[in-house]
Amino acid sequence: MRLSPDALIFWQHGFLKLNATIVFTWGLMLVLAIGSRLVTRKLSTDLKRSRWQNLLEIVVTGIEQQIADAGLRDAKRYLGFLGTLFLFIATADLFTVIPGYEPPTGSLSTTAALALCVFVAVPLFGIWDQGMGGYLKSYMEPTVIMLPFNIISELSRTLALSVRLFGNMMSGVMIIGILLTITPFLFPVVMTALGLLTGMVQAYIFTILAAVYIAAATRTRKPDPEPAPASKT
Amino acid sequence: MDSMTLIAVASIVTSGLTISVGCVGPALGEGRSVATALTALAQQPDASATITRTLFVGLAMIESTAIYCFVVSMILIFANPFWNHVIAQAAGK
To answer: Does residue A36 form part of some domain?
Structure first.
């Protein structure tokens, strides 16, 4: 039994391998890039607009709203990074309805790469927002004693992000594979629908966690110009 | 028992133990958090968006511990490095 799409190799020439993870990742990237290029080719600002533009507007404003809700003040600035993460993971899961497709996020290399992007982006945004000294000082936030623990948490949450996404995706594929041998026809279909749901939830979780990490790294020490009302939920 | 049987028995038993013990804690935690979230939702239906979002994020973080156990047990069954080592040695003989 294959544990990940890495083991499914389409083409091999010496050292070079073309496995299912790479093929499906590039396919997804092409679909996303060409699709959004086609939609945004003729945008309209009046009331009459194409339904695809409507869809993209809903998606983009929805992501922006969620980022703002997660505690990031300038949501537009982080929309490019976090929105890309969400769209990639969500479409990677959504395409599982196509037979023969395996989600590239079911491979630990893909999820580790995504988690490493977050690992690199969090300090970048932090330094961009509060300067090198300010960001480095945030590692010794309560006291200097917390310095090693803050560094450990930085590393461990990267590991947690990657293994969480990988485990969820892999378990979905694995459970469907096992159920196909035990109870074919009906029950795997139900589990596939459940897999769609968990995949969307995982895409949401990944994005929100990245947003929360960035929000923790970019929090400014200045008090708010206007005190936030306590009853605001 | 030779070492091959020992490794096989240890891997199978440990993978079963891993997933069974590893499910108990997250199940208890998720049950508690869902119950608390339901209470909060019943008391403050206006805050349902915030509560639901926080609940989902929390549930995913709790569930990831169970997922770690699942990954470990899957590795023990399907991609066991010790077993592969023994198989490679037996094939080399």
So the answer is: yes
| DSSP letter, residue A8 | -
ipTM: 0.71
Task: Provide the 3-class DSSP secondary structure of residue B34.
Answer: helix
Distance from CA of B45 to the nearest CA of A (A): 11
Contacts of B73 in chain A (CB under 8 A): none
Given CB atoms, is A127 within the 8 Å cutoff of chain B?
A: no
Distance CA A137, CA A131 (A): 10
**A163: nearest CB among B46, B61, B71:** B71
Using a CB–CB cutoff of 8 Å, tell me whether B71 touches chain A: yes
| Structural domain contains residue A188 | yes
Q: Which amino acid is at B46?
A: D
Tokens of B87: 């198989």
pTM, two decimal places: 0.82
Report how far residue A99's alpha carbon sits from residue A87's, in angstroms, rounded to the nearest whole number: 21
Question: Which of B56, B84, B75 has the alpha carbon at shortest distance from A171?
Answer: B75
Span A126-175, pLDDT tens digits: 888 888 888 888 888 778 888 888 888 888 889 888 988 998 888 888 88
Shortest CB distance from A204 goes to which of B46, B56, B68? B56
- Judge whether A105 and A166 are in contact, CB under 8 Å: yes
**Searching chain A, which residue's CA lies closest to the CA of residue B72?**
A167
A208 vs B contacts (CB less than 8 Å): 53, 57
A115 touches chain B (CB under 8 A): no
Sorted by where each starts, the structural domains of chain B and their CATH numbers stand as 3-92 (1.20.20.10)
Identify the domain containing residue A65 by its residue range.
5-40+48-217
Shortest CA gap B92–chain A (Å): 23
Check CB contact of B34 with chain A, cutoff 8 Å.
no
For residues A188 and A177, what is the distance between their CA atoms, to the nearest angstrom? 8
Q: How many domains does chain A have?
A: 1
Query: Is residue A157 situated within a structural domain?
Result: yes
Secondary structure (3-state) at A11:
strand
